Amino acid sequence: MNTLTEVGTWLTTAANWSGENGVWHRLVEHLLLTVVCLVLSALIALPVALMLGHLGRGGALAVNLANAGRAVPTFAVLVLLLLTPLGRYGELPTVIALVLFAVPPLLTNAYVGMRTVDQDVVRAARGMGMTGPQLVWRVEVPLALPLVLTGVRIAAVQLVATATLAALVGGGGLGRIITAGFNLASTPQVMAGAVLVAVFALLVEAAFVAGQRLAPARARGGPR
Amino acid sequence: MTAPPDDCLARNDWICGDYLGSRRQILLDAVAEHVQLTVVSVLLGLVIALPLALLARRRRWARGPVLGLTTVLYTIPSLAMFSLLLPLYGLSAALVVAGLALYSLTLLVRNILAGLDGVPAEAKEAARGMGYGPLRQLLAVELPLALPAAMAGLRIATVSAVALTTVGAIVGHGGLGNLIYAGMNSFFKAQVLTASVLCVLIAVAFDLLLLGAERLLTPWRRAGARRRPPRARPADRAEGRLPVATGRRP
User: What pLDDT is stored for residue B106 in this prediction?
Assistant: First the structure.
């Protein structure tokens, strides 16, 4: 109970929210890192996934990439990148690591979404004389949209988590509040940082779930 | 004054045989701690997940809360999860085990439940028709048929736990993660690379081990596979063959 009140005190102290090490600055860093990396990884993963899905090739790669990626510790990749010459360029190693780990869920879900489009619909579209690009943009992508968006949601939540770990290798973001707390041996600060990170992650998840609910009917549903 | 030795340790190479030789005991100890943390936490997760999944299966009202709670737990980043457990466990290995067990349990509950949901109604009716009681039906029919999905969950949970154990370095109990953390602070490239590669090798070894166990435990699936028509039905592909990936938890 005592710890909880100390956490409350930490969170309600104005000084902890302002300045370069303050919560607001760290929150903006975290949000920025997440959004930039989400856009970058979507730009990399989605075209590849949509093309492979349309052509029906590389399925083993697309599906196994996510499983293989699971075995690689994020922390290890962050440290490895930091020790390469890339490590000298500020946030670059963090961005690379984040993008590396956000690509597999985007790729896998978009690919599976494209492949599970009802083949009768695809055949009907071909029979109507649709060209390849027309088939992709008017039939397959709209039907695959729910799974594509699920992939984006998973990637976003995962980016929030990975960005937290980046603090261990000196990156910015809310994780810095936790690591600073450990360095100060301040349990209240560690806890307060953890609460902020957890709430942030849950809010991102909730925002995407709400977004999917509010989206037009065709972007909803499908297997999750 | 003697000249510094010109070996791979002095040059700080990524790959260094001398490192493997001179630090063998440290590496073995770290691997042992890593494996121990992983196994204990996954087993703990399994012991908690099974009754939860059975409860959610038997009692309709429990399903929503159980699945909701696992989703919330799974969304919390690992660093935050370990930090939230700090007042309960302090800087101890128990903290890492508890955190990892919570992640394992979320994956396991969902997969066991999916497996139990996938048991064909005909199989359950046949068991009931043969006079099986609820317990015998569960043990002899439902659990074996749910095993493939449960094992898939166990494999994902174990591989994830191996990777996540490294984050335990923040409280000094991360197995190979400790070596990565120390290597980062001293810019010791060989140590970071060796420990990272060992992590991946441990994960792959566990995955293969569990895959082998799954094959041994489900002989009927191999027998059926040969007779299965070459083209899978669309429903098969949507549910079983192409699993929709859930995120990993860094």
Answer: 92
Overall average pLDDT of the B47-68 stretch: 91
Q: Please report the sign of the dihedral spanned by the C-alpha atoms of residue A60, residue B152, residue A34, residue B78.
A: negative
User: What pLDDT is attached to residue B83?
Assistant: 92
Nearest to A113 by CA among A143, A135, A156, A155: A143
**pLDDT the model gives residue A85:** 87
pLDDT for A171 equals 82
**Domain range list for chain A:** 2-219
Is A63–B78 a contact, with Cβ atoms under 8 angstroms apart?
no
In B, minimum Cα distance to A103 occurs at: B247
Q: What are phi and psi of A73, to 5 degrees?
A: -70, 130
Residue B233 has pLDDT above 70, yes or no: no
CA–CA gap between residue B219 and residue A201 (Å, rounded): 42
- What average pLDDT does this structure show over A50-63? 84
Residue A41 contacts B, CB cutoff 8 Å: no
- Among partner residues B71, B83, B160, which is closest to A70 by beta-carbon distance? B160
What value of ipTM does the predicted structure carry? 0.86
CATH for A2-219, among 1.10.3720.10, 3.40.50.1240, 1.20.1540.10, 3.40.50.150? Answer: 1.10.3720.10
What's the CA dihedral at B175, B179, B185, B190 to 10 degrees? -150
